[in-house]
Amino acid sequence: MRFGLKGAAIVIAAGAVFALLWTRVAPVTGQTESYRAPRTVDGRPDLSGIWQALNTANYDLQSHSARPALALIPAPPHTGVPGLGRSKPVELPAQSVRALGAVGGVPAGEGVVQGGEIPYQPWAAAQKKENFEHWLERDPEIRCFMPGVPRATYMPYPFQIFQSADKVLIAYEFAGTTRTIHLNEVQNNPAATWMGLSRGRWDGETLVVDVTDFNDQTWFDRAGNFHSDALHVSERYTPVSPSHLLYEATIEDPKVFTRPWTIRMPLYRRFEPDKKILEYKCTEFVEELLYGHLGAVDPATGQTNK
Q: Which domains does the chain have, with CATH numbers?
């Protein structure tokens, strides 16, 4: 009995310690109501700094298992390592990416779509599937095009936020992309653009941004998720600790989706004392891909161009 009481006391004490630790390391979403960010000179929450998403959303916004590559080909049922007993068809990396091995693989991810589903219209679901099957030829990221919103936020590169009284500038490392969020009144863009037109306002601790005036050339990820020129993105940037922003983006596109849907993720502050946004102006790296057929040697055939 004495041992039982002692054991119970240990369990209760351990539970109390766990509860205390849990309250101190509460999930990011649980900190939103209590944290108050430092202020700028005009009294607004200070979001300035270098931030980065740490997830697999750029591979696929939805929950996904690991797979050998983004570009796959079907293989017959007997394909595989002898002795493993595979009886079902498997998919193998396409020839164009096979030499990359594990480097070309796709890590598993929990997904960032609230509810898990992207509510495509039937024709658009078929288009998404086709995009995925033709990822190597179609993904704008491969050609170093500006990534659009919200994809620029969760690509595997840091970005920097600068603030003034009436503007918020975001400088993204990928492709040297920049974006201005206007806190004052501005006219519509004269034409659709890759990054859209961003109008912002403050809702307490949260920067709320409405983004419109998009072209239809960007994707949401490498899995072929796409939109039309009717895209409207509503973003929320909420500081929840000195080290984190909670990022939410609600996507509306009546041409492609049956209803609005939302993604959510934490963004992490980069604390390295000398951390900077470095140049990744990738245009020159894709010149042979885009224009190689105009050069001295056609990379597709190996033949000399005349």
A: 49-62+111-294 (2.40.128.20), 67-105 (no CATH)
